[in-house]
Amino acid sequence: MASKNSNVPAIMRQGKFTPWFYLLPALIVMGTFIVYPGINTFLLSFRNNGNTGWASTSCVAGQSCWGFLENFHYALTSQIMQTAFLNNLKWILLMVSGTVILGLLIAVLADRVKYEPIAKSIIFLPMAISFVGAGVIWKFMYNFGTGDVQIGLLNALIVSLGGKPVSFLTVPQLNTVALIIVGVWMWTGFCMTILAAALKSVSTEILEAARVDGASEWMVFYKIMVPQIMPTITVVVTTMVINVLKIFDIVYVMTGGNYGTDVIANRMYKEMYSMFNTGRAAAIAIVLILVIVPAMIFNIRRFRMQESER
Amino acid sequence: MNRKNLRRWFKGLPTHIILIVICTIWLIPTLGLLVTSFRPFQNINESGWWQVLAPPKGAAEYKTYCAECHGANGKKLVNGDLTDPNLIQNYNRSFALIAMLQKNINNQPHMGTVPIPNQNDAASIATYLRRLSGIDAPPRFTLNNYIDAMVGYRGSGTYRDACAAGTEPVDLSCTLSDMGNPRGMGRAFINSLIVSIPATVLPILFAAFAAYAFSWMDFKGRQWMFALLVGLQVVPLQMTLIPISRLYAQLGLNGTFLGIWLFHTGFGLPYAIYLMRNFLGSLPREIFESAYLDGASAWTAFYRLAIPLSVPAIASLAIFQFLWIWNDLLVALVFLGGQHPVLTYQIGNMVTSLGSGWQLLTAAAFISMALPMIVFFGLQRFFVSGLLAGSVKG
């Protein structure tokens, strides 16, 4: 065995059991807190809401029923869940593109100025703040006063430009966008940092050669930089998609999922802890992980690629 | 500056403008929170935080209607000293003020040729007079919001005033023990620390052992077990909540610190092992070989070599894990709830309950942000490296 793993010195002979002493604490804890609940959630998703029988028992006579998949019937087709899916889709489209494009823009621009570290710190700072803190910060920004005085900056701006104040968090459609802006504000720094690290590795000789040949800055960016850092951009996009699919705190704190802003993760929380529908909540969790699986496979393949390069 | 430099400077100008505008936009929301948290509650709803240095409400109206006779400081007329609280006491509301202004003084109209102010202006002037006479003169900046938030005071005034007047709420005693009030941020801060520190140390400890086995020990199934581990990193948190809270209900672990420590440990482990193993695996094998040649046991090699060498990785990991737990709301909500409220839980509660105003909310939010910000500015290098490596964490 030892000869197969060239990584391990042949001289490191341990007893047969020694490695397991090192592994066991971690394996037990992970087994209890990730593997067991994963399997259990899977099983619960086929049971009714009190886990007293199969999900088919919660079917209502006269309405369409999916048998033991009834919870998935709810998770996939109910009006409430479809709103949540649609909102998650909006989150993915707007937040992923917003964070990646802004992050790339700032990374490219900051690379050319002397105050690069300060600019980057400012953009990165919201990453250190909790979603709850960010929720408070932006609720204040979006504050809507019914009286003459607007203490929310955005509404004060609108009023001073002659407009009517807007209740950002309760107007349907607009409120989801308002929440996504908070997400963009928080996560752009993350994308920027990763992309900036990748940009630094682009060879300056190629860039200089292109500039000497008369390529415009835009051409240099579009034809050389972007293709060179494409693998990193893909990674950032995947990671952001996973993050956005699981988005919970911003919605929970700012609107509680009301006014048509619900997302999958918040819906799951509500089913579980406000309505005590374990079956439905489990089904939603399963749907959530099924959506994440493609990104997860991508991540594992990336890991394999890195391993083969090592 | 010669012409070439000048041209280069102009060419770089759009870059600077775009960058500075973006940075300003990024800073403004946090700045608004910070400024508001230091303003007295009377002022917060009276004017926007960006007007914090502007003249107080009613100053302009006072100047238009009153300053000519009463003087800029209100003391010009001996019989009508506007800084006298006993006088202003009678006219501190707009209707009382207008009624008084309509009366004659010394058989002359009070206002002379100046028109009597309308309802809105009179209200502003009344506010200004209350401020001028010291009846209600909040300072521009105050620390009261932080004190109120720390002790969990939710009344209509401030904790210090209430204590001075002896009208404190029943759950407060106006002694140092108020810092332990379960509704306060002081208690929540301590709870957050109690949750975060063991939940940071435990997974790193377990991960160090496991990662050492994965990188420098030989056992069956090493490869596929590690591949599985990488897969576990992406399991969403939501997936594990329901069975664990059912399990905890049976074991009586719901609402206990032990329960949340264990949960964070389990959930933090895959990533911690992954990072530690990548770091340990990149150490040169010669140092381990020579240690073994010198007769070291596996334990000595781990304890004396691997751990001291991986301090940078441990630091990144610790910061990442600590902030992740400190900022977490969902797990705290599910497993601790109101029994041991942590900072995020407490703020989430304040946001949803309509009772508490912006003065408490902004101060509370800033209390919860203080530690992450110190960590961020003090240990930025480790913070960023930990975050980048942890970008795939579930």
Describe the structure.
The complex is a heterodimer of chains A (310) and B (394). Chain A is an all-alpha fold and 310 residues long. Chain A has a domain at 86-229: MetI-like fold (Orthogonal Bundle), CATH 1.10.3720. In chain A, 67% of the residues lie in helices and 0% in strands. The two termini of chain A are 21 Å apart. Chain B has 394 residues and is mainly alpha-helical. Chain B starts with a helix and ends in a 5-residue tail after the last helix. Chains A and B meet through helix 1, helix 3, helix 4, helix 5 and helix 7 of A and helix 1, helix 10, helix 11, helix 12 and helix 13 of B.
Percent strand of chain B: under 5%
> Helix proportion of residues of chain A, in percent?
55-70%
Which percent band covers the strand fraction of chain A? under 5%
Count of helix runs of chain B: 20
Question: Judging by the overall fold, what is the CATH architecture of the domain at 86-229 in chain A?
Answer: Orthogonal Bundle
State the major sheet of chain A. none
CATH class of the largest domain in chain B: Mainly Alpha
Low-confidence segments of chain B, given as residue ranges, are none
> Main interface pair?
A-B, 101 and 105 residues
CATH architecture of the largest domain in chain B: Orthogonal Bundle
What key attributes describe this structure?
heterodimer; A: about 300 residues; mainly alpha; MetI-like fold; 13 helices; about 65% helix; about 0% strand; disordered N terminus; B: about 400 residues; 3 domains; two-stranded antiparallel sheet; 20 helices; elongated
Q: What is the element layout, followed by pairings?
A:
The complex is a heterodimer of chains A (310) and B (394).
Chain A: H1 18-44, H2 70-77, H3 79-110, H4 116-124, H5 131-141, H6 153-160, H7 174-200, H8 204-212, H9 217-228, H10 230-245, H11 249-254, H12 264-273, H13 278-309
Helix pairs in contact in A: 1-13, 2-3, 2-13, 3-7, 3-10, 4-7, 7-10, 8-9, 10-13, 12-13
Chain B: H1 3-37, H2 41-44, H3 59-65, H4 67-70, H5 85-88, H6 94-102, E1 104-105, E2 108-109, H7 119-132, H8 144-151, H9 159-165, H10 185-216, H11 222-232, H12 237-251, H13 257-281, H14 285-293, H15 298-309, H16 311-326, H17 330-336, H18 343-352, H19 358-378, H20 380-389
Antiparallel strand pairs in B: 1-2
Helix pairs in contact in B: 1-19, 6-7, 8-19, 10-13, 10-16, 10-18, 11-13, 13-16, 13-17, 16-20, 18-19
